[in-house]
Amino acid sequence: MIRKLLVSLVSGLMLTATAGMSVMAAEEKSDPNKEQFFPVLSYWSGPFAPGGSGIAGGWMDYMALLNIRDGGVNGVKLTWEKCDFGYVTERAVECYERLKNKGKHGAAVFWPMSTGTTYALMERAHKDKKVLLHMGYGRTDATDGRVFPYAFPAMTNYWNQSSAKLRYIAQLEGGEGNLKGMKIVNLHLKHPYGIETIPVWDKLAERFGFEVTHLPVPWPGIDQKSLWLQIRKMKPDYVINRNWGVSCTVPLREAARIGFPRDHIIGVWWCGSEEDVIPAGKSAKGYITATFHATGPDFPVIQEIFEHVYGNMKGNISAARVGSVYYNRGVAGAIVTMEALRNAQAKFGNVALSGEQYRWGMENFNLTAERIEELGATGILPPFSMKCDDHEGSGQVRFQQWDGTKWSMISDWIEPYHELTRKMILESAAKYAKEKGITPRSGDSMGSDCG
Fold it and tell me: Which of 78, 138, 189, 382 is most buried as measured by Cβ atoms within 10 A of its Cβ?
């Protein structure tokens, strides 16, 4: 009798446990309609790992914040998968192909994370209807969304950055009239990323009457002694540091060796991180770079990441790097990515969206100062909007200076020479359209109007 009771009790407990497990399994089973998948292509290995890991860390941490604090975006959970391509374009293309079909409608948006990858994926992404968000890098003429419907150099592009650099130099020199007769060296990596700004510097030199010399730095740019001997002979007024990774640091040491003032070296934003200047030691003090976002941990959104993400042991990078240049770049980009998602949801519903639907969210994007304040990101990025024929939306640039221990902002937002760059962008995009047999858009089924 006792044995029968024990068997009955155990059986009952097992049935109860099994039923409980079934309920739990049902509760834990994800709903693909309520998940938005984001591929995270970056480089945690190779010579440029500090940049890739920092940006991806900020991006993933912001998504983690939204999941933990808000339950996702309007009830849609954010999911993602990393793919390390080591800054090798062929591997990046493999990552794209492996991840593009994940999720309910496949990945809606990719961050190419390199200019070479942006060029390599441009036609694939267009065919697959996947958005390429190359914020502050990539192909500049993709600003013309009539020709490049799925490519977005959002916030600012390389040509506008370069023209803003010249406007800043003019401010330092007492006005545009003083640019005439000046000598500027464009020290650039011999790489698609490095040569991207040559056309705009030539146009600027023609317009303002200064002399520009383009000095290519052989990849990977570790040995630049002979180039700096040429610079010493040329005696330029300013040097543009358009390197990447360790090759960003080399010019600072070489400039110190020949006595060239570091506050007359203006770096690209990919040469403006802590990892670029700390290895140069005292040689970096006074160095100036462009930037399109703020640095440091003293922003409400960064503090919330500390509280909700790192407080729950869910961080995606060393906590010591939170608030660094590359990290905040990732957060700024993630804010743009998620606000475009919210925008698209307002039209298509709070469900998993396709790349075509997500593109609508980008082309009808309007990030106001009020919304930035609500996000706790005032100062991290500027207000801007995008539309069908303008996939950049701002072009504004700020400048920061290394004081030996930290970066400090030394300018307000500076407007580029839009009238010059816009003409170049339209001409370049039209040439591409002709070569590829593309008819520029004037409207489409998603409601984007380029008329």
Answer: 138
